[in-house]
Amino acid sequence: MFDIDFNQKGELLLHRRKFLLYPKHWQDQLSHIQLNLTWHNIEFNKANRNAAPAKKGVYCFIVKPNTPNFFETKYLFYVGETTRTLRQRFNEYLNDQEGKGKPRPKVYEMLKLYKDYLLFYYTEIPKNNDIHETEEKLLNTFVPFINTKIPKAKISPELKNIYEA
Question: Which CATH architecture has domain 36-164?
């Protein structure tokens, strides 16, 4: 007899994500970062609350499934910038994960649903203008699902309609 477990269906739908995989964005010379950046990553958890540097820069949240006997797979969920320190920003997200303050709903959901699979990637960038430009280029290139402000979407009705659908 056929049956549907609606609780399981609801749980599965909670984990469905949209990704825009658009090679023209990746190839767009205007979106290429001109700085020579060195990226580092740490697991996003309380044990690493002091591991991020006391420097400003750009960061990303990556979801990495830990699947044995399979090649490495990662999903870019969020890109951010901070002119405070990466350590401060990391700790603010730990507070968001615990529901302290008023975390943004999409960010909170990411932090809770994927807490055992989150990596915090970061790169130190000393100049504020370079930080903002790098974040903007990454947002326009990858259009991460959790981000709500994509600069290119402001001027492209096609991208805005797809992104907000």
Answer: 3-Layer(aba) Sandwich (3.40)
**pLDDT, tens only, 91-134:** 999 999 999 989 999 999 999 999 999 999 999 999 999 999 99
Alpha-carbon torsion angle 47, 53, 57, 59, nearest 10: -20
How many Å from the N-terminal Cα to the C-terminal Cα in the chain? 36
- With tokens 């290139």, the residue in question is 141
CA distance 22 to 160: 14
Q: Taking the complete model, does pTM exceed 0.85, yes or no? A: yes
Alpha-carbon gap, residue 36 to 68, rounded angstroms:
33
CB 97, CB 112: distance < 8 Å:
yes
C-alpha–C-alpha distance, residues 105 and 38, integer Å? 30
